[in-house]
Amino acid sequence: RGWIGDAAWTYAVEHAGDLQRRLMDAGKQSLRRGIEQLRPGNTFRDWAAAVQGCAEGEHGFFLTRGLCGHGVGRKLHTPPNVPNTVEECPPTLAPIKPGLLIAVEPMISATTREKREEPGKWPIWTADGSLAVHYEHDVYVSADGPIVLTEGLDELPDVVGA
User: CA 53, 54, 57: angle at the middle one, nearest 5?
Assistant: First the structure.
């Protein structure tokens, strides 16, 4: 009792065009690649390099700057912050340790790294109004590596109401 989870998933309603499908694939793939790096001894820079390399390097999309994952527990947002890009990682990072419970959530846009928001309010938009996706899993880091607590989301369809 009293523990909080945090997850997000992107869906298309009734139809997904080529761009939407490519964005969704890049979002889910970058999330999976990053999660593979959430192991004891690695750092969040390893996470960010995997996510950024996949989303921007392989797929040619853009990670939204200024947004990050975070710890979860008895409160929704707790330390540590989990940056999604290498540039946003602090220069010195402690190694990841077993027992860490985090929500990891890259947000990927078709054409911009920048966001538009009203301070303290939701939603957040891409600065240029382009399409974006957001996928988020809760991950527990065990001595043997990452355990995805919200893995059931991976089984959901990309298009609903079709």
Answer: 55
H or E stretch at 109: strand 107-109
Domains of the chain: 12-160 (3.90.230.10)
| Residue 78, pLDDT score | 85
- The number of CA neighbours under 13 Å toward the Cβ of 86 is 10
Sign of dihedral through CA atoms 94, 66, 56, 107?
A: positive
Neighbouring residues of 63: CB distance < 8 A, sequence distance ≥ 6: 51, 52, 55, 56, 84, 85, 106, 107, 108, 109, 113
Query: Over the stretch 86-103, which tens digit does the pLDDT of each residue have?
Result: 999 987 778 999 999 999
Mean confidence (pLDDT) of the chain = 94
134/141 Cα distance (integer angstroms): 22
**Ramachandran sector of residue 133 (left: φ over 0; alpha: ψ -120 to 50; beta: rest):** beta
Question: pTM for this structure?
Answer: 0.94
Report d(CA 151, CA 53) in Å as an integer: 22
Phi, psi of 80 (to 5 degrees): -90, 160
Output the six-digit token pair for 89: 């990682």
